[in-house]
Amino acid sequence: MKKFLLCLSFIFCLIAIVGCNEQSKAVNGQFSLINFGADWNEETYYLVIPINWSGKAPVTIESIQLIKKDKQPITYEEDSIKYTFFGADRYKKSGIYSESDVGDLKNLNDVEIDGDGKITLKLVLGEKVKEDSERRLKISFKVNGKESEQIVEWNTLEQVTTLS
User: pTM for the complete prediction?
Assistant: First the structure.
C-alpha cells in the first residue's frame, strides 16, 4: 500500500510540474489596433495603423493575414478584398492615405513592436465587399525567440463594405 501511495504521489507531482511548465510557455500579451471609420469605395487604400502589444517583452512580427472566424483566408475571388501588410515608421501619422501620400513602405518581416508601433495595410477593395463580423487578423510573431500567433478582432476590418 505504501508503494502504491508513493507511486501515486510521484505521478501527481510529475503532472503538476509538467502543467506548470506548460503554463509558463504561454505568451503573455495581446495585440490591439486602433479603429478607423470611412466611406469605403472600390479603390486602393493605405491605412497606417497604430498597433499595441501589451506584453512586457517586445515581439517580432513574422506575418499578418486576413482570415475569417473559421480561419479560412480572405480572398479577392470570394471576398473582393486584396491586401498586403507593411511595416511603418512609428512617427508616421495614423490615418488613411493614397499611394502617393503614404510614403516609404517597409518590409513587414522582422518589424519589432515594444508596446506601441505602427503597421501599414494596403487594402484593395472590389465592388462587392460586404460587412462581415467574421473577419479577423492572424498575427504570427516571435516573443523571446518563441513562435506564436494570435487571432485579433478588429472592428474596422469587420465593417468594411463597398455596398450602399
Answer: 0.81
